[in-house]
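Homework help board

Subject: predicted structure for assignment chain

Our instructor gave us this sequence and asked us to write out the predicted structure in token form, then describe one feature. I got the tokens but I'm not sure how to describe them. Can anyone check?
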Amino acid sequence: MQFDIDLGGGTAVVVLVAILAALAYLPLTYRDKTLWHSALKTVPVAMFAGSAAAQGAPGLLVAGLALSALGDWALSRSFERAFMAGLVSFALAHLCYLGLFIGLVETWRILPVILLIGFALSSELWLAPFTGHMRWPVRVYVGLICAMVVAALSLPDLFRLASVGALLFMASDLILALQMFRMSPDTKRARWAGYALWTLYILGQMTILFAFVGVKPHG
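My token output:
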């Protein structure tokens, strides 16, 4: 099955502006966390949420995108409480996506379940020991995103783009975990990880959006 992206004029403009904002933010990932920095980071996914709402997309999709935008703002701030707020926002976003995807699953695929359980358990070795007092929030978050991806990979072919988007989203979260807990922030490797994280994240959110808005299957 192939897909044609068929966005209306207004939606196409919104998506284009969101992409341009995301590209503008890319070189700012390692700048000082000013209000301008935070606003620019929040714009792309907030615009995705607005576009989804305007086109009558499922409420859980709109909520997931809106909560993600809130998480973008929180994670762009330099306070520990802001990081926790961002973690909670993205955890709730994953719950929204999980609820949306579960409602569409017709047959569960066993292999993704096995692989994602293995991945979640493996994080006890390479991630949990380095998270300090954040260990339990991180554990819960890992469980939520793995559950979301399991549901996404069991979606019917009609929503295959959402499966791709969920995997991209998970890849960005994996990089974020390594960046936050396993990398020195002032290295070239950490900087390139930030660029990859942001690119995968935006592509993931956009692909999930396109799975429900403006994409028509054929073939």
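Reply (TA_rk): Your tokens look well-formed. For the description, you could write something like this. The chain has a mean pLDDT of 90. That's the kind of observation they're looking for.
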